[in-house]
Amino acid sequence: MKKVWLAAVFAAVTSVGAQAQVAQTLGINKDNRSITVTATDSAFAMADQAVVNIGYQAYGEDEQTAYAEGSRRSNAIVDALTAAKVPAEAIESQDQQLQPLNEYELKNLPASLKNMKFRITQSWSVRSTPEAAAKTLDVAVKAGANQSGSIGWEMKDGSMLEAAASAKALAHAQSIASRMAEGLHIKIGSLLYASNQAQEIARPMPMMAMAARAKTADAKPLSISARRVERSATVFAIFAIE
Where in this chain does the entry annotate a coiled-coil region (predicted)? Predict the structure, then answer.
């Protein structure tokens, strides 16, 4: 996916903000003709890290009961992850709350939760390899993580992908500048200036919350595949005209 904005400048470069300052710094004027191009391009790579979001929701007739059930689930989930050899530093707490149900919630509780007055929730993010994401989720759900499922896909080191996106955008800009020059019967010269802004394009992978733990310990992990990570870069380039 490519987006391109073009501008040709012969007598002078007229711009605003930072681009105007660049023009003044480079001394671009009637004696220094130039072509400016702004181009956006992207680079892709398969994610090499997964962030599995896991959590639970439990209820109690009073604060103490809700907290006790939360404590049981909380420790069971972390113990199961530890037993599965998930490193402690890969598990990060995100949120935990113990609160009374409001009037609307009390009126709309299912029959199985009729006498419940308090709710406790807790969530974590667990970093793993893409290959281990399904197993991590499976272990947590079977230990009681009934509010789990979304997975974020990342690069451990995004700098190489950002550099690739920037290089593609610059090459794209140079190609466009050359075609512009050919159409105007002039020759493109050296690159006078280039700047870029790299940005990540989020590619979330939402999954439905799992409302109950697996019915049997024999249930297989879900089939989960890694997704591509994308980085996009926009390059502003000034080329001399010979």
Answer: none
Pure H helices in the chain: 17-26, 63-83, 103-107, 133-142, 159-183
What letter does residue 116 receive in the DSSP assignment?
Answer: -
Cβ-Cβ contacts under 8 Å for 39 (sequence gap 6 or more): 2, 3, 4, 5, 169, 170, 172, 173, 176, 234, 235, 237
Q: Is 116 contained in some domain?
A: yes
Structural domain that includes position 189: 3-46+157-201+232-241
For the whole model, what pTM was predicted?
Answer: 0.70
pLDDT, tens digit only, all 242 positions of the chain? 444 333 333 323 333 344 444 443 444 444 558 888 999 999 999 999 999 999 999 999 999 999 999 999 999 999 999 999 999 999 999 999 999 999 999 999 999 999 999 999 999 999 999 999 999 999 999 999 999 999 999 999 888 889 999 999 999 999 999 998 888 888 888 998 998 876 655 444 444 444 444 454 567 877 777 888 888 999 999 999 88
Closest Cα partner for 213 from 151, 138, 123? Answer: 138
Query: In b/e form, how buried is each residue of 185-204, taking b as 16+ CB within 10 angstroms?
Result: eeebeeebbbebebeeeeee
